[in-house]
Amino acid sequence: MNIVRRWWPVWVALLGPIAVLVFLRANQALDVSWFSADGHVAIMTVVAALALAVAGMSIHSSLRTNQPGVVWMAIGCATVGLLLLGHGLTTPGALGQPANLWVGRLPYFAMAAIGFCLFVAGRSPRRRPNNWVGRHPVAALAAFVLPVAVLVVWVSIDPLSLSGGAPLPHEVGVLRGLSVAIVGSLLAVIWTHWRRWHLGRDVVQLAIVLSAASCIAAVGSFELGEFSHMSWWNYHGYLLAGFAMAEEQLPGRFRVVIASADGRPMTSMGGLRVTPDAALTAYDPGEISALILPGAATWSDGHGVALDLALRVLAADGLVAGICGRRTVSRGPGCSTGARTPVTPRTT
After folding, report:
1. What is the pTM of this model?
2. What pLDDT is recorded for position 148?
3. pLDDT for residue 318
4. Domain at 2-247: CATH architecture
5. Quick one: average pLDDT of 262-281?
6. What are the extents of the domains in the chain?
7. pLDDT at 249
8. For domain 259-330, which CATH number applies: 3.40.50.300, 2.30.30.100, 3.40.50.1860, 3.40.50.880?
9. DSSP codes joined into one string, 165-215
10. 132 by DSSP, 3-state: which?
11. How deeply is 128 buried, as exposed, middle or buried, from its count of CB atoms within 10 A (0-12, 13-18, 19+)?
């Protein structure tokens, strides 16, 4: 019963779209049919534009933070945006395009890309290939996105090239197997990040879970929905929902940095060596949302630079928090007379 209580939101997110799909397939009168080649191009252009917009925000964040997960999100959204744009541009009957197989292949590649990127983004940043991606975000983006862009341009210009006019051997079976692999990787993503959500109620973890569930729903509708009917068209909406959740994963509001008085590395009493991002004087107190001062037995010996910054952050209506020896200093002269009283979180 505990598993049911902990996991019921995930079951709703996964089974809800399946119920809708089954209901529409069982009620043909409600599974309305509509298809327009030009309309499909327009819809896919909008979906691709939204994906590329999220990719642009992800790229901007990845260049500032060098977090592998954000780089993978940028790669995933950029790849999906390009592939879905190609999906629209290769629509038979639109823009003079002939009947071809690339219009059906590109969505598989798009869903595989987002599934792969969500899966890899959840791995440790110290493991390969994440450690390389975090250090070289531009090279990683170029290595994954540029070949996709070349492919999309190529098949959009000539959709019959690269076996676009005839299926490859066992192509249908391979694509079905790819769908199974996509769903499997996304289920692994949900398993990992829902457990992390329970540990800290981090909204980013919840957004990843919902994004993965939306992508699974997209795969189901694309594979099992009836072409040109609502049961098939729904996959576009599920992909949009996945992109919306992906945007919530971007660290756009806050950036966590570590600073020391002079910017030099510091070693704690327990032997932990920390390399700061910069010196305390490099930051404007008005741009600091929260200043967290660690505990130490040396706070009563000085640390004037840190204490001065704390007072200026308080004067700018920021938050200052401290633990251990820092609490004693916070009760000293001047440290409790600012825009607000320093907040001291309880340790557990």
Report:
1. 0.71
2. 95
3. 79
4. Up-down Bundle (1.20)
5. 79
6. 2-247, 259-330
7. 58
8. 3.40.50.880
9. SSPPTTHHHHHHHHHHHHHHHHHHHHHHHHHHHHHH--HHHHHHHHHHHHH
10. helix
11. exposed
